[in-house]
Structures
1.
Amino acid sequence: MNDKYAALRLKNQLCFPLYAVSNMVTRKYKPFLDKLDLTYTQYIVMMVLWEEKQVNEKFLCEALCLKTNTLTPLLKKLEEKGYVKKDRDKSDERNLVITLTEEGERLRDKALNVPECIARELNLTQEEASALYKTLYKILDEEREREQKL
């Protein structure tokens, strides 16, 4: 039987399992991040800063696929916790520079086991995790390229 509405069934949508798994994975992070007093979004900001030490706001927005209005309150909270310092670029006052503090650097050691704990929670083989990673980054990278052309 021809069902012209088959494409509208939830089970036939790629968006739904992506959405549901994203929410599930974020929930799995919560108990580990609660011990660090971080939200998931604060955690990903910290991961960028642990790697880069100092970035500007635009870089952070692009790296994390976040809008400025989402990032601004996150940075304020992280600054209140003493993990980051925000300053205006001396050569261009429009440019906000975010710097990892010593306290923020110390938090890195406390977070060291989080990726391993999440990997156990997800119960994927190394091959499955690698294939999923490649597929998701293929989608992200193509979208970023498309946005840069606009």
2.
Amino acid sequence: MNWIKMLKSFKYALAGIWSLVKNENNAQFHFLATVLVISAGFYLKININEWLIIVFSIALVWSGEAFNSAIEKICDKISPEKDPIIKTIKDMSAAGVLFLAIASAVAGGIVFIPKLFKI
């Protein structure tokens, strides 16, 4: 196993995360939502199974946002001018993130709403 190569791949991935958060408005919103949801999880003392739901929901949304942003960057590089096919590709990619965000919001509601009613 080449440890140097593996460490470099982590470095590149961390650079990608930084670029995503720094440059993408939706990722900045996801960052704020992530902080709020994790804080709420600690405050409301959610159990291990609920943490699993929350962690996987967060990971799915972040992954979707990263893929969507990468697809948009590729499309912009390939076709800087307006193109109806590129628009459809970008819209479909954004729809994928929206599906994940909606599912995550529903999962978050299932976890948090009963706890909030107990307060």
